[in-house]
Amino acid sequence: MNHARAERQALCDLFDRLGPDVPTLCEGWTAFDLAAHLVLRERRLDALPGIALAPLASHTVAVQRSLKAEHGFAGLVRLVRSGPGGLYRLVPGLDAAVNTLEFFVHHEDLRRAQPGWEPRELSGDLEALIWRRLSKMAWLMLRRAPVAVVMRGPGGAVARGGRRGGPAVRLSGPPSELLLFCFGRQAHARVEAIGEERAVALLRSARLGV
After folding, report:
1. Please, which domain of life does this record's source organism belong to (predicted)?
2. Percent of the chain with pLDDT over 70
3. What are the domain boundaries of the chain?
4. What DSSP string runs through 95-135?
5. Which of 133, 138, 127 is nearest to 171 (CA)?
């Protein structure tokens, strides 16, 4: 089982254990909303653009609501668990290429919105994979950062993003925590941020992510 499928199954186990009404780190979303989102992005390509493009968001919201009404929480979780669906099932390698980070982040969105959470101890293989992907995507995820960002990864590797010039903030921590920070979960990512106090504060409150 690859990491994308392992995270998918672990997230579905957590859905089943916590139920539909618990909060997530996705603003305004419960577990029910998150399950509907995951089904939508794999099985309703017509609604995908509205995830990122505000003018099309109303259609995406309507489809997400219709999925909740049609399938219910348990049905949506079964669909997620049975995946990958849609193109992710048809195109070899697409699930592992795209869904590893997607399901890891959303798994943590659910975990870390609950009281008493602690970071998981991940395998070295998964941490290494996350760093490889993160180091390539840093420029995109940090494009709205108001300061320069330097991240230090395994073995002294460095990834950079954010504004060129001016004050820089140096981030350190496991690749998984750096990924969550760069995905806009700064308040729930266990990273060390070193730099001018104002620069660190600006970065921690910035709208980051893809």
Report:
1. Bacteria
2. 100
3. 3-111, 138-205
4. IIIIIHHHHHHHHHHHHTTSTT-------HHHHHHHHHHHH
5. 138
